[in-house]
Amino acid sequence: MRLNYAQNPGYAASMNRGEDILSVSRRALLAGAAALPVAARAAAPRLPDRSTFPGVEGVFLDSGTTHPVSRAARQAIDSYFADRGGTRAGHHMDETETRVRTAFARLVGATPEEIAFVQSTTAGEHAVIDALDLPRAGGRIVTDTLHFFGSFGLYEGLSKLGMDVVWLTPRNNRIPIDAYARAITPGTKLVSLSLVSTYNGFEQDLAKVCEIAHAKGALVYADIIHAAGAVPVNLAATGVDFAACASYKWLMGDFGIGFLYARADRLPHLRRTRWGYYGVEDINWQLPPYTDRPLGTQAARVTQSNNAEGFFATGTRSHAGIIHLDWSLAYLNDLGMDRLVAHRTPMLDRLRAGLLSRGYTVVTPEASRTPLLTVALPDARKRLSDRLKAADVRIMLASNRFRISPSVFNSMDDIDRLLAALPPSGEI
Predict the structure, then answer these.
(1) DSSP string for residues in 148-170
(2) pTM for the full model?
(3) What is the pLDDT of residues 324-347, one digit of tens each?
């Protein structure tokens, strides 16, 4: 389904002001792209420059932590807040939410009925655990140490409550498929992983993991926060049962709003644990004048939807965050993930070569198409913070590693400035 950009206030407004996010007219771009072979289109993407993201200062190579906000998205949010005060006709949030769910479903290869809004990736993961009736149902969970570290406490907690939790560890900076084949045994209830690891950008063979898990009767959950909006994703094709992500990274959104995917044929078998008003399909009120059909002691007869929203949606969610996504998801779908990967890959190749030549230990697997490149370095924050600050370069610095994550607005000049700021590892 192609989105109608005339219905997207933020995107349409930026086009009307001549602020085309692709730096060329969309009609000319698509006409030119259609005449090119697919390989040529992927090899020469046209992407926005830094002026599209006015908050970016210096060399910003840390979009994997929090992506900058575009000018067009800010204008859409400003328009929403102006309308929210009642001074104009106002935004119709039901229509906007439907449009955003549809756009996200298109981006990740799902249907809108399989998508629910959630607060965060973690909220989605916990909702899945509850719906599977864990830990009461017992059994085994298989996960790995390249999964999101924020989930470690969840699975350690489930282990303490009686679940048999198995942790897989990396080999050559990857979780090998044969490790899943050995660990997923009959009685395994869930395999939980990150499609793209926040630690080093390793991308799982999700379809193969699902094939192994389903053959043993297990279901699969994928954290897709570093995949959605960053690499091509087709959840339906992989067979994954559940997935979740927040929007403040590669979806170019904000904190407090994200998505939960639940495969349509899995929904009837879940334990319903939430009865939020966003999931209500029909309500018969007891109070007059809403009904003339007395319900006895019931306040109302409520029918929940049988889609993902009916199972997982609860109460208040970020309207401003959804307005933001109305712009950014339209942009990402229009851009295409293949073009984004093609733009990023030469930068990451140059970065890898430059780091290796300086003696650094790169722990991101070779030939990775993901936007994260990680280097293991003891005391990385302490040793590099002052140097990078002086060079006006921002990357993610941690205790024993650093991570670089370029986005649509970055260029080879940014990579060269970062490499110029990094001395040989033995000289730090």
Answers:
(1) -GGGHHHHHHHHHTT-EEEEE--
(2) 0.85
(3) 999 999 999 999 999 999 999 999
